[in-house]
Amino acid sequence: RYSSFSRRQELDTLTKVHNPLIGTKTHPSRCPDNSAFKQQKLPAWKPQLTPATVLPSFFLTGAFCLAMGVCLILSANSVREIQFDYSDKCSDCSKLRENSSNWNKECHCSVNFTLKEDILGDVFMYYGLQNFYQNHRRYVISRSDAQLLGRNVNKSYCAPFTTYHNGTPMAPCGAIANSMFNDTIDLFYNLNSSAIQVPVLKTGNSWWTDKNVKFRNPKSYNLSSAFAGTARPPYWHKPVYLLDKEDERNNGYVNEDLIIWMRVSAFATFRNLYRRVKRIRQFADGLPAGNYTFRISYNFPVTKFKGRKHVILSTVAWSGGSNPFLGIAYVVSGTAATLTGFVITAIHLKLRKKKTFFQK
Amino acid sequence: YLKKVKKRKKKYENKRVIISNLPFGSKKQKENPNRYYDSNKIKTTKYTILTFFPKNIYEQFHRFANIYFVVIALLNFVPVVNAFQPEVSVIPICVIMAITAIKDAWEDFRRYKLDKEINHMGCYIYSREEHAYVEKCWKDVRVGDFVQLQCNETIPADILLLYSSDQNGICHLETANLDGETNLKQRHVVMGFSSQNTLFEPEFFQNTIICEMPNNDLNKFKGYMEQPNHERIGFNIESLLLRGCTIRNTEAAIGIVIYAGHETKAMLNNNGPRYKRSKIERRMNMDIFLCVGLLFMMCLVGAVGHGIWTGNFSEYPPYDVPDENGNFLSPVLAGFYMFLTMIILLQVLIPISLYVSIELVKLGQVFLIHNDIDLYDEEADLPIQCRALNITEDLGQIQYIFSDKTGTLTENKMVFRRCTVDGIEYSHQENARRLENHKDLDLDDEDFAKFQHFTLPPMNIERQATYKQTTTKPLGRCQSARAHFQGHTRNRSLGRRDSNQSQVAFSSTIEKDVTPDRRLLRRVREAALQTENLSPFIHTKTSTSLTDFFLALAICNTVLVSTATEPRQRVTVPPPIKPSGITLEKIHQIFQRLKLASLSQSFSSSQSSSDLGASFSAKNTEEHLAALDCCDNDGNCCASGRGDEFQGKGSTDIGSASLDEVFKSVTNSSLPTDFCYEAESPDEAALVYAAQAYSFTLVSRTPEQVTVRLPQGTLLTFDILYTLGFDSVRKRMSVVVRHPLTKEIVVYTKGADSVIMDLLEDSATADISAEKRMKRIKEKTQKHLDSYARDGLRTLCIAKKVLNEDDFQKWANFRREAEAAIDNRDELLMETAQHLETKLTLLGATGIEDRLQDGVPDTIAALREAGVQIWVLTGDKQETAVNIAYSCKLLNQRDTVFTINTENKTTSVFSQETCESLLNLTLEEVRKNYEVEKPQRKFFGIIPTSCSASEAPSPEFGLVIDGRTLNVIFQAGLEEQFLALTKHCRSVLCCRSTPLQKSMVVKLIRRKLKVMTLSIGDGANDVSMIQAADVGIGISGQEGMQAVMASDFAISRFKHLKKLLLVHGHWCYARLAKMVIYFFYKNVSYVNLLFWYQFFCGFSGSTMIDYWQMIFFNLFFTSMPPLLFGVLDRDVSAETLLSLPKLYKNGQNSEIYKLSTFIITMLDAFYQSLICFFVPYLTYKDSDIDMFSFGNPINTISLLTILLHQALEMKTWTLFHLVTMVGSVVFYFIFSLIYNATCVVCNPPTNPYWIMERQLSDPTFYLLCLITPVIALLPRFFIFALQGTFGASLILKAQQLDKLPKGQQDLEIQKLRSRKQTTSGAPVVSPGDTETRGLSTSDVNPLRKETPEEGYYFFNRWAEEESTATDSSAGPFSGHYPPVPSRVTNPGQNSGKLTKDNTNNFNHGSHRRSVSAVTL
Question: Which of A74, A288, B287, B596 has a Cα-to-Cα distance from B448 of 20 to 30 A?
């Protein structure tokens, strides 16, 4: 292969000589520039890992991490969280749901629990699923963002949950939407044998951008006409425009339960935000101590993949949930850094002693 | 006629038939038989605009990796296995290929532009329409065209010379563009082609030219011209003008184009750079296979895992999505598909961008090497040329260097040193002194120029010899004035018209000015006076041979003469004077006139120079001089430009003018100007200059005549009857001349002593006393020759022979027949030459010094300290080679040198056995010595315990072996023993080796020892060696360009090797090795994140990172820092690398990139990826985190970790580094923010909308980004910190050295080096020995300064062995004796018939050479 380098040289030698026809070409010297870059003499900082530089870095890192870790652990401990596995408690229902032909039979069960202390602050209600691989590759892609944005879609990754055999498109399409969690969970506060339903917020649970940008209903004068010509996904009980009977604006693709479900979870065991306790009346400070009951309309079958369902009540702290791991990680790595700092100090001192001895 | 041509064409299928284009105008072009030949348009581009894409893509697919990635990208289009959106997965490979394509296109475009420039150069072609030569472009030249060339024009194609304006039909060529040789070459018009003298008329040219097909042999060309009358005229390369050469000294030349364009010899020779695979790349390819294995394992895990996971369900869960038809896959099939999916997913494990990155980095490295000012040679105006672009890092791993001697270690500047005539040695002490001084003089050339202005007034006459040299230096025109690099002006090319011309052609002063030996000079003058006073040709024997000797020196060559004022104008006509009649009186007259003139002008010139200040150049002065002393009234031109002569005279009285001066003035006054000699080999010029020093001046030379001026001032013009040129087989050259006065036919021969000595006349014919005398002369001369060789001089014998007319006529007939022969002309010519060169009479011998290049000993010492084994492979004779080896410190005085020779010319089975036993014996001896040496070192060593097993004792043996023995070794399969022996040797010298043997040695070492080899050479005979080695280095010197064309790097001085290897080699290796490792690390640690995620998504091939971000991660976010690192990182400064050559061992032992470091890096990559995955996992476990929100911190974290890892590796932080580092991170965030904010549905089905924005408002994200890189890099940092604390490796120490202030740094370096020296086992370091040590190291040529006793000791023995060797080899080997016919010098010492006496010497701390020579 020819390289332009050698060709340049060849031409240099060719044109260097006096040619009467093209005139004498004064040839500049081929001496390279004496610039710092070309002579590789750019001013540079050359860090060196000598004890003098290393030890402070270890100790500073260690101290910082330890301090940070303690803060994090403290804040994680301040988070109150209660979790109930209701898949066993509603065993009748779960058995009923094992047979998919009973899909339209209603089944209710309730879970009682007692709060010994008040849960102060914002209380979030989650439903949790175990062993539900929402992150399965073919499941993850089985959606149509364009459809959820209210557009007409021809091409999507929803197959085989795109249309029915008769050609009626599913709205929304895809496996994610089809398998939407459809239990309803209500929380009742048992005060003096009367059960007060804890007021909850259905909206504002999802990301603002999801609700306002990513999800849009098709444009039409009303919802049912917007979804005319489409059918609900096969697992659903009701069409998408009737998801929320109470709030007209929480229907269709912008239904927050749907939006939250559509945000596929990272792991097989996960929780999704379901409701927030509305801080009014006696719940203004959070959940007061006392007896509570979850009334659950059990629709979502989990037994066939050995899954479990939870309902979780939790508060949050600035550092997130009740998971203390990050704090522990900080503490551990802080300790490790400090220890290695000591080790290096020890080695350094020992060596220095030896060196002086050696030089003598 | 045409039919005939066609017929002939069939007949000569492998011949080229060319006729004139002129009968075929534009109309009859179709009938032109020349139309099939290439036009002169050159096209070195690979592509056109149309073919670029298909061709470039096709070429890129030759790279395996590209195919791999394309197959994977295509695999992604299969729905069941795809892991990403198929369209997207094509992007990386497209980008990679696009970058490569852009690079190729750019290079091609540059080639196109250069081609265009060349194609549009102009030349004159004969046009039938206009009956004149019209100007056309080079590209329009066609085979069969008649081209007229003018002086200094570049030849556009290969042209057969048909006419030259020179009356002798000669055209001079400068072939520097082709082979770098700057001396002029003669080309002559096709012999016997009649139209000479009359102007050549192209239209009457009716001959048919039949010649060979285009080939790349620059020195061979044969063919004949068939005239219409079927008479054939033969021609050869001597009549071919080659494309790219330049016409010189000839006003006009006309020729017919034979080969054009790509078929020219110049183009066929230009192969462009070669593509080699470097050691790192070979290693890397192996590791890529390891990566493939790893990939396979990971995919298998994924496949099996997915199969099991799928099989676990009794019923299909809602998240297991069936295919479009609602069918589910069986677990086995799902597993199989998953395997393929995983390959797509984890493909990046094989670093896709590695290849293109390496290419880019190497380009950068080559750029920096190319621009190193230290590797620039100011004299030749040449920087280093990197011809191979992809083996820069091999420079850092060299273990063996094979070097040529002549022109590589030595300057190839031949300097006449001594001579012997008639058995009397003239040692030329003054000359030697001059040479000693030369170096100092050369250094401050400029000072001398100034000095000269102020000291023009008379000088002390004793100092005239030295003064002459210093003052003539700025004045003389033929010198290559040293170009001052940082000086104000390059004071080269005084008074020359084309000042761009390189100066190399002209000999430097050091070669030119020979200070004559006083004794010899007196004798020459005596002889001259005798001839003057007495009858011219009755004189004593000595004076004849003296005269003959110098005549031979002046005549017996092919030197061209030109004058100083007209550098390239040949002097063919003797100057129009008749100085033969000059009497002493006349001389006095001339002398007085000269004196006056010189005084006045020197005055004026000094005046004017002081007026004009320092800027007044020497050139002006000289012109002044030339203008003043023009012609005297006798019509004798006396334009001597040598001011010194006049000053010399100015100081002395006229009356007391010595004989010396009279002669000098005569000589100078009759000189038209200074002469410049242009010789094909530097030896020849040296001899001519030597003759000139004794006033035998070669005045002119034409093919027929040569004119010499004798000391008397007589001009003798010899008719040259024949010139038998030098060739390497005969090793001699001869001229046959007719003496102008005696009309005798004399053959002057000069050649290698070994050849000439055998050809001397059998002294049977002469009387007894003469016979005795001859014998004595021969013996003495041989002795002198030996001593010359001992001093490292090149020896040549001069002999003559007088032929009688009949013998000559007989021989001339033979010769003519041979010349006319077509088929085996070469053989016949050789035969006739050998026939003539017999029965010679020895005149004398000369010793020419081939001076060592600057800095060679230093470079060799440094390279040796760096752990490089240096071998010298030379075609020279043993004595010369050994002595050069000593003077360049390749061999040490204390070393034991084993010499293995085979004098036996027939290589039989017997000698193979002998050779084997000999090798074994030597090996045994060496090993024994090893054992003996060790305890001794302990005894002498200063540090008794610290230098224990860690330092391997460096071998203190040298081996000298000759070509024949090498042949035996190769033929008998004794390579193993040979290698075993050489492994113990500090250095090995192979003398008298052929080019083939050179390359065989290199190949042997390369193959058997599996080491990195480097060959360095400058001549055509080194080409095979250069090509055989891993790295070939050519020296662009005086011996032509062949070596450079074959080389990977071309440097101009041997000393440049030091920086090239120790600094650039080290850097390039360190940079590239670290970069390659880093690339592996980067890809593995990143891809593993995806792999770990598979354990949490049922091995379904999900990715938590958006695919675009994944692509960009490799392509943009993390690509720049490693590239910059690969180009710019400097782990240790250049100064430290040069002062501590031991640092080079780092690369030699491949310490940065070997299997262990690779594995460690892989493990670290695994660890880091585990941390980068599991810290976020555990943090987000059991939370409502969604997939991309989980992937985003992981991506960010691993970006930070990978960049910080790079930061840890980087040893140099310049602004560039900082900017790219920070820039990469900033770019990542900006890109992510923009991408996540704008892309709502643009990238179905994944949708990372608003992820980054949301994460940036989450404290957990920041907390994670802080802690995870810390945990991930803690172990590595800890190890580095430990190393820094221990200061374990030399590299680290050197880095610390860099930071010290200058003085302390030097001190520390000294400390480090001295410790190393003591530990590496130089046995003499005790304080009492310092004196001897100092002596031995300070000697440049130790032998010269050593006491004669020691010197003779060595050589006496040497000679003894030499002489006995022939006897023993001739005699039959007896079975009773051990089959080693070597002479035992010290029989008591050992019975192995191997001499060696170093053990005792060690004890005495003496620096005496100990030699064992073994001769077969």
Answer: B596
Report CA B1277 to chain centroid distance, whole Å.
44
The whole-angstrom distance between A164's CA and the closest CA on chain B is 11
The DSSP letter of residue B566 is: S
Distance (Å) of CA A290 to CA A114, A118, A187, A202, B868: 5, 8, 13, 24, 86
Number of Cβ atoms within 10 Å of the Cβ of B1007: 12
Helix axes B91-119, B52-60, angle to 10 degrees: 120
Q: Would you say B347 and B303 are in contact if contact means Cβ atoms under 8 Å apart?
A: no
Judged against a pLDDT cut of 50, whether residue B1323 lies above it is answered with no
Q: What's chain A's length in residues?
A: 360
pLDDT digits (tens, 9 = 90+) for B43-82: 878 888 888 889 888 888 877 778 888 888 888 888 888 7
Known active-site residue B404: yes
Give the best residue of B100, B1102, B1252 to mutate against chain A (max A CB count within 10 A): B1102
Kindly list the domain boundaries of chain A, sorted by start residue.
80-315
Question: What does the block give as tokens for B240?
Answer: 């071919």
The Cα-based distances of B573 to B443, B561, B566, B569, B576 in angstroms read 39, 11, 14, 11, 8
**Chain A residues inside the 8 Å CB shell of B1216:** 42
CB-closest option in B322, B378, B1250 to A207: B1250
Classify burial at B877, counting beta carbons within 10 Å of its beta carbon; exposed 0-12, middle 13-18, buried 19 or more. middle
Interface touch A2/B111, C-beta < 8 Å: yes
* β-strand partners of B158: B259
Q: How far apart are CA B1306 and CA B533, in angstroms?
A: 69
Identify the pLDDT of residue B670: 45
Answer whether A61 sits within 8 Å of B1270, measured CB to CB.
yes
Dump strand ranges (E) for B772-826. 793-803
Residue B340 has pLDDT above 70, yes or no: yes
C-alpha distances out from residue B258 to B39, B421, B1269, Å: 11, 50, 71
Cα(B876)–Cα(B412) distance, rounded to whole angstroms? 13
Task: Return d(Cα B16, Cα B35) in angstroms, integer.
Answer: 12
Report DSSP letters for A250-291, one per residue. Answer: G-GGG-HHHHHHHS-BSSSSEEEEEEEE---GGGTTEEPSEE
- Min distance A165 CA to chain B CA atoms (Å): 11
Q: Is B226 annotated as a binding residue?
A: no
Report CB contact under 8 Å: A266, B1189. Answer: yes
Backbone angles phi, psi at B395, to 5 degrees: -60, -25
Q: How many CA atoms lie within 13 A of B18 on its CB side?
A: 28
* B404 annotated to a ligand binding site: yes
Give pLDDT tens digits for B415-462.
888 888 888 888 787 777 777 665 544 444 433 434 444 333 333 433
Chain B residues inside the 8 Å CB shell of A337: 1270, 1274
Q: Nearest by CB to A133, which of B381, B501, B1098?
A: B1098
Report d(CA B1063, CA B1214) in Å as an integer.
19
Name the residue facing B389 among A3, A65, A272 (closest C-beta). Answer: A3
Residue B71 CB neighbour total at 10 angstroms? 13
> Is B1286 in Cβ contact with A14 (below 8 Å)?
no
Taking every pair of Cα atoms in chain B, the longest distance, rounded to a whole number of angstroms, is 132
Strand ranges in B616-775 using DSSP code E only, listed in sequence order: 675-678, 697-701, 705-709, 715-727, 732-738, 745-751
Distance from CA of B201 to the nearest CA of A (A): 23
At B899, give phi and psi (nearest 5°): -120, 125
Pairwise CB contact (< 8 Å): A46 & B1241: no
Contact A225, A169 (CB under 8 A): no
Q: For residue B1207, what is the nearest residue in chain A, using CA coordinates? A: A47
pLDDT tens figures, B1141-1166: 989 998 998 888 989 999 999 999 99
